[in-house]
Amino acid sequence: MPHKIAPGKDIDGRKAKALIVEGEIRIRVGDEERLYRAGDVFHPPANEAHAEQYGPQDVTYLVGGKG
Questions:
Q1: Which residues are bridge partners to 52 per DSSP?
Q2: How many C-alpha atoms does 16 have within 13 Å on its Cβ side?
Q3: Quick one: pLDDT at residue 39?
Q4: What pLDDT sits at residue 2?
Q5: DSSP letter, residue 14
Q6: What are phi and psi of 24, to 5 degrees?
Q7: Which long-range contacts (CB under 8 A, 24 or more apart) does 7-10 make?
Q8: What is the pTM of this model?
Q9: What's the domain count of the chain?
């Protein structure tokens, strides 16, 4: 079952992939920012400073990772 992520939460220290199920998320790493929507897959950066911003409906995604 998908897990609903509230603003301020993130995935740290893992090599992971995430499938956006609902909503949207913007991820900024350095000067690069990308918007991901339902159906998109993103790779959260492991052990790298990044910022996440959620759309007005938050975001729901499925994630799998390696520790």
A1: 27
A2: 18
A3: 96
A4: 46
A5: -
A6: -150, 160
A7: 7/53, 7/54, 7/58, 10/44, 10/50, 10/52
A8: 0.70
A9: 1
**Which tokens belong to 12?**
């740290």
Look up residue 24 and give its two tokens.
């949207």
pLDDT tens column, 26-67: 988 888 999 999 999 988 666 777 788 888 888 999 988 766
Q: Name the amino acid, one letter, at 19.
A: L
Give 6-29 pLDDT, tens digit per residue. 444 445 555 778 899 999 999 888
Tracing tokens 């893992």 back to the chain, one arrives at: 14
Which residue's entry shows tokens 């918007």? 35
**Contact by Cβ (8 Å): 60, 19:** no
CATH of the domain at 30: 2.60.120.10
**For residue 26, what are the domain limits?**
3-66
